[in-house]
Design a protein that fits this description.
By secondary structure, the protein is an alpha/beta fold. The protein has helices spanning 2-13, 74-77, 80-94, 112-128, 149-157, 165-172, 206-226, 235-253, 259-269, 272-276, 281-290, 295-298, 304-320, 322-331, 337-345, 349-366, and strands at 37-40, 43-50, 53-56, 60-61, 102-106, 139-144, 179-186, 190-197. Strand 2 and strand 3 form a beta hairpin. The N and C termini lie far apart (79 Å).
Length: 368
């Protein structure tokens, strides 16, 4: 009964008590305890002792410092293909033309798409890569049809280069609906390039031809940096990066093409969707590991080094930038590429495959 009586008394008394908590602080108004603070109308008021009374001071303006949110870089806000292609476009715009030493042979029967665009496309490629690699020696480049093989081999022999016999046999058997484009390392010139294509390639268009020419110049850069055509970087980077840079440089230099269209056209041409269809994550991991060296996975018949490799290059350029990607190549010249990969990108290659690449490959495949 005493507790009940006390509660009733307090309730009756409550309206008579000073409403400190409910009353907004005002300079000079009475407050309850020295040192307490209250924020009101953009100011922080403090209860201070003034003579024998406790009153609110004049208040201090509160600066507008909103709680910082987790920073999200522009790269993280966009799809990888957007960030990566924008990176290349900006690099191309900032680059300047260079005087590349190319010695061209273009035979009279060469596929017109290659004969018309080889020079300008290779010069644009050399411009993009100028800060990374600028040829100090004359690079012989032969463009022709299968029937002009004799002229092509003669042009290259002027630089003491002979096409390997296995490749020569392939070129001799090439039909008018086939092609063989390649770059090879050669000490006397750093590299040589030959673009041999028939004239019955119904699927080929101007932009795809340009991406293939640009693709081969990426190999020229790789040879210039690594002094070898294969072996120091994984096959998927060797070929996949050539696909990526071929698409992105052509898209950046041509108002009649866009990166996503070129990218998806090549993924379709390389049968990427079917190559990974029905595969478990463990099976895909095994294929990516094999695409490092196994040419039957990297190239025909699966061609994952070209397709999946281009998407993994896209991911790395989108996240880390063009310079870091090339830095990985350069560091791989003198150390194992897997060690260089961890040092440059901060992740073990198998973790990259499992946690980043495979989810992205599956997502990209679903949009084709």
């Amino acid at each position: 009964m005493k507790i009940r009586a006390l509660l009733i008394a307090l309730l009756l008394l409550a309206p008579l008590l000073p409403a400190y908590a409910a009353t907004p602080p005002k300079a000079g108004a009475i407050c309850s305890k020295a040192g307490i603070t209250k924020n009101y109308d953009g100011k922080k008021y403090t209860c201070i002792k003034s003579g024998k009374k406790l009153v609110w001071n004049k208040g201090v303006q509160i600066s507008a410092n909103p709680k910082p949110s987790a920073s999200v870089s522009p790269r993280e806000k966009t799809d990888p293909w957007v960030a990566a292609s924008q990176e290349i476009s900006e690099k191309l715009k900032a680059s300047i033309p260079i005087s590349a030493n190319f010695d061209f042979l273009i035979t009279s029967d060469a596929n017109q798409l290659f004969s018309d665009h080889a020079k300008e496309t290779l010069l644009k490629s050399a411009q993009f890569w100028g800060n990374t690699y600028s040829p100090s020696k004359t690079i012989p480049i032969a463009v022709g049809a299968p029937k002009s093989l004799e002229s092509i081999t003669k042009h290259l022999s002027n630089y003491s280069y002979s096409i390997p016999q296995w490749r020569l046999d392939e070129l001799k058997n090439l039909k008018e609906d086939g092609m063989q484009l390649d770059v090879d390392a050669h000490p006397a010139t750093d590299s040589v390039m030959y673009l041999v294509a028939g004239n019955q390639l119904s699927w080929l268009n101007v932009n795809m031809a340009k991406t293939m020419i640009t693709h081969e110049y990426v190999h020229t850069v790789q040879v210039g940096l690594l002094k070898t055509r294969n072996g120091l970087i994984p096959c998927w980077s060797n070929e996949g990066s050539a696909i990526f840079y071929g698409n992105s440089i052509v898209a950046a230099s041509n108002t009649n093409s866009d990166y996503l269209t070129l990218r998806n056209n090549w993924l379709a041409q390389l049968n990427f969707k079917n190559a990974i269809a029905g595969k478990s994550n463990n099976e895909l991991l095994d294929l990516l590991k094999r695409s490092e060296e196994d040419f039957k996975v990297c190239a025909a018949p699966l061609r994952l080094g070209y397709s999946a490799g281009s998407l993994m290059t896209e991911l790395l350029v989108a996240e880390h930038g063009h310079e870091k990607f090339v830095k990985w190549w350069v560091q791989s010249k003198n150390k194992n590429w897997k060690i260089a990969f961890k040092e440059v990108f901060g992740i073990e290659i198998n973790d990259f495959y499992s946690n980043i690449a495979i989810p992205f490959l599956l997502k990209s495949s679903s949009t084709l």
